[in-house]
Task: inverse folding
């Protein structure tokens, strides 16, 4: 039995080592980078670039917040016909006063949450180290 295992191991070893040779398998593959052609260089048709004026502001030196507002809301450009139609369909001219305008009015129905909620909302901003509970009972000590 031992001789049979040694012979089988030897045959497997010789078979695996023979697979490493280049006798039956050609590894020459086409180079994918050599197949594609390089695009020819194109000279731009317009050489009428005007040099910048001395002291003029650079176009890219605008504030990032102004660039964001221009990107979001389109700057001072006129609205397109489809944009106007969408706003009219949404009720641009017949819309009620917004919630932000009526939030503090005396006719707005509100739920009274009590003095505690008002104290929390009106509390000064901080890290919470100086926070104290305002109870009539003595504060229980916390174990350290």
Result:
């Amino acid at each position: 039995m031992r001789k049979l295992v040694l012979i089988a191991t030897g045959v497997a070893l010789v078979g695996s080592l023979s697979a490493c040779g280049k006798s039956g398998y050609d590894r020459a593959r086409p180079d994918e980078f050599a197949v594609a052609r390089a695009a020819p260089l194109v000279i731009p048709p317009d050489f009428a670039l005007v040099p910048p004026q001395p002291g003029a502001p650079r176009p890219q030196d605008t504030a990032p917040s102004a660039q964001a507002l221009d990107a979001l809301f389109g700057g001072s450009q006129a609205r397109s016909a489809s944009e106007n139609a969408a706003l009219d369909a949404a009720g641009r001219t017949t819309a009620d006063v917004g919630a932000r305008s009526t939030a503090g009015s005396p006719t707005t129905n509100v739920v009274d949450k009590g003095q505690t909620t008002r104290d929390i909302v009106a509390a000064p901003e901080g890290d919470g180290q100086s926070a104290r509970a305002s109870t009539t009972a003595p504060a229980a000590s916390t174990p350290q």
About this structure: DSSP finds six helices and no strands in the chain. The CA atoms of residues 6 and 109 lie 93 Å apart. The chain has a mean pLDDT of 75.
